[in-house]
Task: structure prediction
Amino acid sequence: MEAVLGSPALKRVLHRKVRTMRIFRLILVAAFLTLPLAMPRAAAAVDLPHVSASSWQLDLDYMVRSIEKYHVDPFHDVSRSLFDQRVAELRARLPHLNRAQAIVGLASIIALVRDAHTGFGIGTSPPISFHAFPIKVYQYSDGVFIQAAAPQYKQLVGQKIVAVGGVPISTVLQRLQTVVMSTNDWTFRSQLQFQFKGEILHALGLSQSDDAATLELRGPSGLNSVTLQTLPHPFAMGYRPGPPERSDWIDARTVSLPPLYLRHLDEYYWYEWLPDAGTLYVQCNFVLNSDKESFADFFSRVFGVADKEPVKKFVLDLRFNGGGDNLLLPVVVQNLVKRDSINAPGKLFVIIGRGTQSAAENLVNRLQRDTHATFVGEPTGERPNEFGDPWPFVLPNSHIEVHIASIKWEDIDPRDDRQWTGPDLAAELTSSDYVDGVDPAMDVIQKGSFIPIETALHPYLGKQTEALHQALLGYVGDPEHKFTQVQYPMEALATELIADKDFADAHSLLRWSAAISPNSARALDALCDSYLSTETPQAAKPCYASILARFPRDAIAASRISVLASGQLPDL
Result:
């Protein structure tokens, strides 16, 4: 079920892993989406008895104290003042909210932490016991669609959701984000199917009651409207694409044979050798030992196949991998590093996506750092330097189990402030791709090749700045590079240019890098440093001052200003 955590064995090794089993891919919300919970309509206002209201307030206070005391860095994304303001507002409203609204209110507070390992799932099982609708939704690149539905609603399968309760779907997503625990927008997308519950939609002002909602849909015959009733019992929607496991629901996919990537989602890991394409395809859905074969034994067998067969492309599919045990990762990374026949540009590919989280993100970090892998797909559902190892806390009155991240995993450069890992080559799933059984990621791998940005820009260095700028715009504007993260390669290229005394191009690259990544203190620091390196120190001090205005705790900018104020030039 959605709100249930991992096995006792998994809990026993919390100290050594980032834990996010598929059943615990908790999502964090955009902290600055400020839509309040919908208050009950005057005619239907429900005031809880005084003792009940007090109980919810006590649960709120307990949850807030636990977050403040035990989360490793609770205010990394939201300011303390805004957090306290939202808590006070909810505390004042609780006497006027019904049970469902109180639960959704608690979720809106913990969502401000913006950490996929901190929060609670709003599930259909006790103690929350909300009610799901008989549809499964999915956000494709072309919109939000009904991917599967109960048999009585089979005519709705494959239709696009335009509005809910008369509210446009874009606004619906914004409201849902305020109560879903997620690190970034991609974790939110991975959790969207769990948010279409009667009580959630009603609490957010998207329906007239807890047990029904009206959807406006666009199908083959145009726009139509349907009112859905909630399911009367606990229901596990599941993370797998398509119908929930062991259900009789109807799938939008029309082809009889599932595409390769959907064939064995019940397996922890499996592989298939595709001799016609010379491709060894490996799908890893958990970083855990299965009952059938250990993680290490499986990958040892895979690399045995790689050594025997004429492998042209090695594909590691992590798009559905919600995490597990970091101690198991070396067998993958070390075996790839020592095999030059696989570990080479154009040969090693890693598929990532919204479902790539927790220990799987750490695997991505290490592959990005230590191998020549080309990443394909969509952004990951976790940041490279993530918060993890959540511990459960039970609220004293509602008995809701809240999880709070206890450590920060800095598995890559500690100053890496990316919110997700972007693929080198974008391969987003469209609604028609799913219906037709097409895998855009494998299509890109078989057809495409990745050109790093430093290679693409090299012919324009030392020439007109405008030509270099146009080459950069052309690169980042290419749909294949929709999610390509160019900041760090551009910084490295600029460092080489400074060493070669090409100050103009170096400064231009760092200025454009800062423009592409405006929320990165690291990108801005690199730009300001370039003024010192390019022998224009008079421009450096105001540059560093502007950084401190936005990032008051940026030690690099503060240090540089201190040294400049003494009349010296900082050592870079």
Notes: Confidence is low (pLDDT under 50) at residues 1-47. The CA atoms of residues 393 and 402 lie 5 Å apart. The radius of gyration is 25 Å.
